[in-house]
Amino acid sequence: MLVGVPREIKDNENRISLVPAGVRALVEEGHSVLVERGAGDGSGISDERYEEAGARLGSVEEVFAKADLILKVKEPQKSEVARFRKGQILFTYLHLAPLPELTASLMKSGVTAIAYETMIDSYGTLPLLTPMSEVAGRMSILVGAYYLQKTTGGRGILLPGVPGVPPGDIVIIGGGVVGTNAAKVALGLGARVLILESSPRRMQYLDDIFGGRVVTLASNRTHIAEALRRADLCIGAVLVAGARAPHLVTREMLGGMKKGSVIVDVAVDQGGCVETTRATTHSDPVYEVDGVIHYCVANMPGAVPRTSTFALTNATLPYVLSLARQGFRDAVMSDSVLRPGVNIYQGEIVHPAVAASQSLPCRDLMEMIH
Description:
By secondary structure, the protein is α/β, with parallel strands linked by helices.
């Protein structure tokens, strides 16, 4: 199989979908890899390193025209969608639930679209979303701490506090991978941390791993509103796999927040869990609503590509090898983890949560490929 690796073109997206070690693994199995020139520059990986690993370098036009399997990091932009051809396989983060135009374009293109973020393993976890959720969760506290400075529009709060001055208050909505990693960094800074979580079992887990150093509360409208009134920094860490994130923080709740407080909505990829969220970019990351700073960058890990690229490709490579080795049909038939990653096949939506989020019909993938 010919595997294509284009350069990412989303605003300040510096990651790349395959590192030289992955190229070598594919080539050793007899596959060919075509990498767009300069695609690894943002992650500090030179063209020469890809060539040494056995890849061939080419233009973006060549990559999309010749590759059977396109590996990306972020959802395809308009210029990329126009390059897809029927029967080609796309493997990337898609986050289609809040993107009906992209969904329609991919359906029309005839590409088979597999999303990293909807693959689920036997433990009910998301193996290809987890590494980037870890990065984004940890980054969210550092970003929030920066925008709490008066010079960046915030309240002028130092999250750890100092002797004689109490630390800042951080509210994390959602106790999954993002929320847990945010809490680790927040506690490391010395902030006071409250996690709102809907699952009693998850709250027990969080209490155990943090040794009672975080406060947990059942996530409901009343508790969220009360918590936000005390918050200096709120982290939106809600995820429903494949579906649009629910709006748990309403516009009305912003009125009760402190002026100059900060919201970092990590759920922005799935539409955001804050009613006032709109996607921003690394070039223009923040905006203000009712005196509250919103940071809603939809590709946060792209800012730390040396860490993110290697963390992501460690997780994706086994599935890339499976697709290249077996082809789409056999790989999906044999791998129950890869199967729920398929969002679009033969012009049809085959993931129930994506279909439901856009009020569109959903076909059964297994019926279609048998």
